[in-house]
Specification:
It is built from nine helices and 13 strands. By secondary structure, the protein is of the alpha/beta class. Helix 1 (about 20-30) crosses helix 9 and helix 5 (about 155-160) packs parallel to helix 7 (about 215-225).
Amino acid sequence: MLLIYANFMKTAVIGGSGYAGGELLRILSGHPHFQVLAVSAHSHAGAPITSVHSQLQKFAGRNFEAVDSLDFSDFDLIFIALPHGESSALISKIPQNVKIVDLGADFRLESADDWKKYYGGIHAGAWVYGLPELCQGQRDAIATQMRVSNPGCYATSITLGIAPAMDLIHSEDIVVVAASGTTGAGRSAQVNLIGSEVMNSMSSYKFGGVHQHIPEIEQALSAVAQKPAKISFTPILAPMPRGILSTITATLNNPLSTQTVHEIFVKAYSDSHFIDVLPLGQMPKTSSLIGSNKMQIQVAVDEHTNRLIVSVAMDNLGKGAAGQAVQNANLMCGLDERTGIEHDGLGA
């Protein structure tokens, strides 16, 4: 299949003015097979791309386009990076033979009741979930699809952080505290996200089990475990632009050593280029992963409480959004999943 796309695939980015859209453009600017022919942005239509993303000098001289001006039949591949609830309105306008990766939540949930509870509005249905490392066969499932739903950032961190242990733990008592950089909240102006409010401060938000990624995580983990999974999730706004650090705990079914659990995780992700289970004693750091599609994991057993503890770090705009979207597109197009996103993070 790779030979079919030996030159390039005509690619469009819908919603290119946001943080995830900008990171997507940065990655695609160096991708050997995906050529970006159009970038749309509703409120910035007609404006230079570099007026919003000054770092994207490869797009100098090009403007954002209005989405209504695009002929979707001109493209082979479309990335949609719109706010939740907006991409489903576009789908009927895109021909069935055009591949789509949707970075929004519109097609992640299988349950219409969950969609109504956590997002509101009409449930648009569910596409194959674009988390390649989720379980055996997930890469193959993604590779056969024309349309894939990219996971949420917190959901990626938490789901992959605990998935290898689902047979070892009480699956309905998973507790998560996770901190995310401010880009996770999107680019829209909000008083609580300005520098004067965020710097030198940390605070929880969507407190009390109401975060919209909860049903997505439970859906994915229940599929892995083949039994119900429940999480108690507290998100924290961290005073940094990008990155996620998740701490996941769960009661073990039986006493195990840290070494044993570590070996299970290493084996589970031995074929996953983008997930590094760190050597014992080394902790994940968000600064090590900025600008990459990588994830770092460390595990420990708290023998005092018989609880498994997992620490996970990643870039919310990388593996949590744009990097993973390109990873999914690579699989859908018959390319090596590492194409264009193999680089390491920036580090401190």
